[in-house]
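Journal club prep, shared notes

We agreed each person brings one worked example of a sequence with its structure written out as tokens. Mine is Glyoxalase. I'm keeping it raw so we can talk through how to read the token line rather than staring at a rendered picture. Sequence first:
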Amino acid sequence: MKPEGIEAIFLTTHNWGKSAKFFRALGFALEFETDHNSGQLRNGDGPYLFIAEIPANQPPEAHVVLKLRDEDAFKPEPIVDVVTPFEETHWGTREMTVRDPDGRIWRLQAPAKAGN
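Then the structure, token by token:
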């Protein structure tokens, strides 16, 4: 099984409030906000945008999250450099990170396993 497409874009920012206002001005709607300066926005039926505030001494980053229906059916080809195997996230999914040939990090997200 291969990824089904883009699930989300994960961004880090130095100012959650300004970032949320910026994307709302571009037509994104706030789906939820957390109590730790982060939240999820969406524009239509496409991928969601999750933004999390980080300390000023860390560089802002962007990660594309690819959607998998079933992690057990995903068998990476040898060219795929697995950085971290699937592991639980604190938001209720399982995630693997891989590195492409140019060194960029990609995240693959699958539903949590039954019983977790």
